[in-house]
Protein 1
Amino acid sequence: MTATDTAKPQIITGKAKLAGVLGWPVAHSRSPVLHNYWLRRYGVDGAYVPLPVEPDAFVAAVLGLQAAGFRGANVTIPHKEAAFKIADVLDHSAQRAGAVNTLVFEDDGKIHGYSTDGAGFVASMEAAGLNPPKQAQALLLGAGGAARSVAAALQDCGLRVAVTNRTQGRAEELAKALPGLDVVPWNAWEQRLGTFSLLVNTTSLGMEGGPDAAFRPSLAHAGKELVVADIVYVPRITPLLAEAQSAGLHTLGGLGMLLHQARLGFQKWYGVNPEVDAATEAFVQESF
Ligand SMILES: NC(=O)c1ccc[n+]([C@@H]2O[C@H](COP(=O)([O-])OP(=O)(O)OC[C@H]3O[C@@H](n4cnc5c(N)ncnc54)[C@H](OP(=O)(O)O)[C@@H]3O)[C@@H](O)[C@H]2O)c1
């Protein structure tokens, strides 16, 4: 970001375009920082606000925002499945993810739902110049909501995808939802790493304040070309990424996914296709 961008005031007139993020809790969300940065940068008359909404109040809140003239909203934990249910129209990404993180209130009164997490991950890989070949095999650690959207997006790019999860039943459920997905036992993935060209951590392991912030698995069996990605973005370099870097492997952190997943909503609500560049990344990074 340039000094000119930081100096630009936000424009919020009586015609301002409004959106926000629904979550419970929502205080940790970086989306308000990001969207308001873009609003200032592109001189859009608009605002983006955090919307702390308890699960029981989700439907009333969405309908209330729509009645109040909002353009739509992002949806974060724990509302992504409720958002899937409330949408009148689900695009391909939402159907594949079984969840919605972006709601758009269209002029005809219909609520459209999208899941942009998986596409955000793929876009962040592409932006980093890490395009795995189509026949590549990816291994995902985790079988939660983020895993499903990333797995679906990678499959849609033509990759063969496997998942491994502490709770094996959850990985098997995921394999039922996404045909073609392989399941690797949690206690065997480190030994089988040599068959994969992309490893993605989609668990909360390695996250500051998460279940095990020190999570640093062995990459001793990795091939030389393995790309190691972590969708955790606090800290920026997780212990897994540090291990990969010390082994001389290509790595990708989770901040790019966070920034890229936000683009579709911004474009739909505010009418500008925002750029994810070093300035955007630096601005959001400063908020941590
Ligand atoms: N970069 C981004 O834009 C972005 C977007 C979405 C999410 N994320 C991050 O992705 C992570 C997962 O999010 P989510 O929504 O998918 O959460 P989720 O649905 O709650 O899934 C959590 C996953 O972590 C695993 N896990 C938790 N504690 C574990 C432990 N002690 N040992 C082994 N596995 C453990 C769970 O395994 P079990 O099934 O065995 O419990 C599950 O696979 C979070 O850190 C979130 O911040 C990042």
Protein 2
Amino acid sequence: MIVSPWVGDGMAAARLVVPNGFPDAFSNSVIMTAAFLGAPRFDGDAAPELNYATFGSVFAHEFVHVAETHEFGADGSVQELWSAADIKAEEAAGQCVVAQANAWEPLPGVKMKGERQYGENVADYGGLRLAFEALEKRLGTDALYRVDASGTSPAQRFFYKYAQYRCTAQTDEDLRKTVESDSHAPTVFRVNAPLSNLPGFARAFSCQPGAKMARPPEQQCRVW
Ligand SMILES: [Zn+2]
């Protein structure tokens, strides 16, 4: 396994015990560590919507990273895969993601860095959408939104699990640090921003127009 950046001996081994996924642009592949394949992140006996919300959304997040890295061919050689029009279209659609992050103020006076966190945010938005669409394909639209004996629908359980998976207790000081130096957004944004852009979320919970977690269609970002 190629590990880049290489930050020290044992890095490759460490990554096997850390539950995470990584994009590997040089081999056009996604690496999911063995440690990820355990409950509660992945459970072969669990209902599909739960695994799609965790393993599925992280895998799709890494997949978007690979797709966004368009400078390598299938054999790893340097090659531009996108046309000039593709690049322009991606940039234009991406402005929406940048603007939503910049407009969010997690604490008074603390501003997000939409440009700097774009790569991770666009992977979060796209990863959620792709995982949810894959689940819809697996279950069928009717079954996805149908409330069953448990009182919830598979779609609702997918979103609960997605939010629970990212649930974080964070001090203001740590949140400030995340905004300043992390390439990822604070977890509250990583949940609420992608969900509020996804029509399936509003449908699953019957959000009324104007609901805070359901952006109107013309304000929804869609890159992937
Ligand atoms: Zn990422």
Protein 3
Amino acid sequence: MPGKFALAFPILSLGLLVLATPLEQHEVAPGLIEDPLKGTSNPIPQLIKDILAGVKSAVANNAESKKPLICEDACCVWWNVSEKLTAEFRETTGECNDNARAAIRFGFHDAGSWDEKSTHGGADGSLMMDFGEIDRPENNGLQSIRTLLRSVQSTYNVSYADLAQYAHNHATVTCPRGPRLMVFVGRKDAKKAAPKGLLPDVHDSADNLIALFQRKGISTHDLAALLGAHSSAKQRFVDETKANFSLDTTPGVWDTKFYNDTLQDPKDRPTIFQLPSDKVLSVHSEVKDSWRSFIGQGKFWGEAYGKAYLRVSLLGVKNFNHLVDCTETLPLFRANATVP
Ligand code: HEM
């Protein structure tokens, strides 16, 4: 019997290797979230585990949803929050606006202040609360969206932690072609400011940035996917002489142009601003294949972004059994700006 296994195992492994593409092979992340998820078999933690394992999708583009006439569940208030955010995040042209791009960055900066050694921080709303985090230089430019989100919080009395992540997911789908990412609520609000020094520095080396994200459980493939959020971005503080330059040619649309634009010679893209960090990561040996794989592949990128951002949106979260799926309250996916 052991002889048969000895023979079957290499054949089976070879078969799996053939099935897995090179990208899937280096997609594996250290799995910091998988640890607290172990041993929970309730439907939501199980769904999260399945998404992180690549068995299920984090993108709900095709799901229909309509606000119920009588609403009685934990998601009711989010229908109202969603209506308010649509009004704040969408231009009359149908594209997403400065509030939307700031909300996308805000969600990342709230959750991203965490690593494997942290005893607090992560997706806990601390950046929106009164702990002074907004005055840290790395959060420059997030003051207006914080004020807007705080007013939404006080009107609807939702948690700061959930609102920061809900606003991120709302903003991505508000951008035409942006994926409608599954959104879970039920996180606990912070009791103190997040640890310092855990957000990426735009002038850091690619090796340091990769290591920083790895300490959050984020692989190089996930990092390449996440940086695509700069498809919707502008800069104001890296080079103040080029304030409001966008990071790709179409900042109002969630598309893959950013990946190609970043690879070009800046002389050929005079109207955009290339962040030094994006530039060095896009050509790094551990990132470049993933980076190029997203060019012109919006659906593939959307799936990768959804999976990677789900991980970000749960950094530091431990109460997985209390999470509720409120994806139905998000606006519907729009393939272009003119769709209402
Ligand atoms: C290596 C990692 C990263 C670095 C060094 C970085 C750095 C920056 C910098 C310097 C800006 C411009 C800020 C300004 O001058 O106004 C910016 C903007 C932005 N970033 Fe990142 N970022 C990183 C990762 C991410 C991730 C993971 C996300 C989202 C998941 C994200 C979303 C955004 C967005 C949406 C903006 C535009 C904000 C606006 O226009 O108001 N970034 N980022």
Protein 4
Amino acid sequence: MARIGIAGAGLLGRLLAWQLAGTHEVTVFDPANGPQARSDGRGPAAFTAAGMLSPLAELDNSGPAIAALGWRSMVLWREITDELSQPDTFRTLGSLLVAHGSDLGAAQRVLARLAQAPDLAGVVQTPQRLDRAALAALEPAIDPRLHAWLLPGEGQILPLQVLPALCAAAPRVRWRWQHTVASVAPGRIVLDDGSEQRFDLAIDVRGTGARPDLPVRGVRGEVVWLQAPGVPLHRPVRLLHPRHRVYIVPRPGDHIVIGASEIESEDRSPVSLRSAVELMAAAQSVMPELAEARIVHLETNLRPARPDNEPRIDTEDGLLRINGLYRHGWLLAPALAQDALAALGLPAAPLRGFPPPVPEGGHSLRPGEARSATVLDQASAHVDLC
Ligand SMILES: Cc1cc2nc3c(=O)[nH]c(=O)nc-3n(C[C@H](O)[C@H](O)[C@H](O)COP(=O)(O)OP(=O)(O)OC[C@H]3O[C@@H](n4cnc5c(N)ncnc54)[C@H](O)[C@@H]3O)c2cc1C
């Protein structure tokens, strides 16, 4: 059993803590007050995320490696949500691409890129054109005049349910809420009050909070929560539009989340009037019945991105860093976590999924580095079990 310290209780932090808790002594540090989402949208990007699992649609923004990780993660999410006894938080009903007639040219260019989807471990998915009747059968609230394509196999996860569930399913983990990490080094986590904790393995999954240890930036995203009783929506929908790439995602309780904007800014201030108007107008052009929906709240957050917008796993003795999950963290996290743990030779929860790659010269834990109790261990005031 190794002593493992994790900086960051966002998506990766919770996933890793849950996977490692069965076989290791795990401590997690995060500045948040506790495991739940904050009403102002601060905290992990993971809480704000739409939760679309779109390996095919993301080919429009990224390469085949992301798609391959995504398809693997889809298999893992099924196992994870089953293990968490939350099977309803993960669905693979496919997703839809839609376009207005006037934007068909731009849509065709996107579709041509997606049509080149690589054959990944026997998973070959390409967009399927839907006629009016097929669209009405799948999604009756979508304007039937729109052009529509089904992306089979794509999925959706419910972040607001899965994040607390991961935490609750790992009761042996020491969740140190209200603890901000200043730096992470091999076998060492230093808090912002200068105190230091020693571990066999230190894991840095602080997302945008990992600076200056890592060259990450935040990319602003904005979402609008609507409540729309009686307006059916079963799967994520993306509007292919030259300017407004809006997505519309169903959530429990008659809720619908609209999102889009990707702004190169770390501004966490509230959603601008222009963004809100554009998002909602575009969404209403897809689903006219949203006109009577109620605006529940608006939220902004920052996607953690590296300079090349690619995710990255860095390992060395006593240290693991994963960052740069950018706009597809939910899509990638399980496969990245699996690869990282395999590279370190760490046994984790028995998830099957696709077999992880055989580690090549992976770094293992340096034995005997762990120190016993520190000041933090005695400071139980901020320990919060999920
Ligand atoms: C608007 C929006 C929509 C999105 N939609 C999707 C989507 O549909 N599908 C998809 O796959 N992905 C989506 N994403 C991306 C996804 O949310 C992120 O890629 C993912 O959350 C990254 O996971 P992470 O664990 O690296 O970071 P985070 O989830 O951001 O977690 C980082 C954690 O580190 C903690 N932390 C920060 N600083 C410190 C510190 N100094 N000390 C200790 N802890 C610290 C934070 O409090 C947080 O808990 C979206 C993101 C946004 C913002």
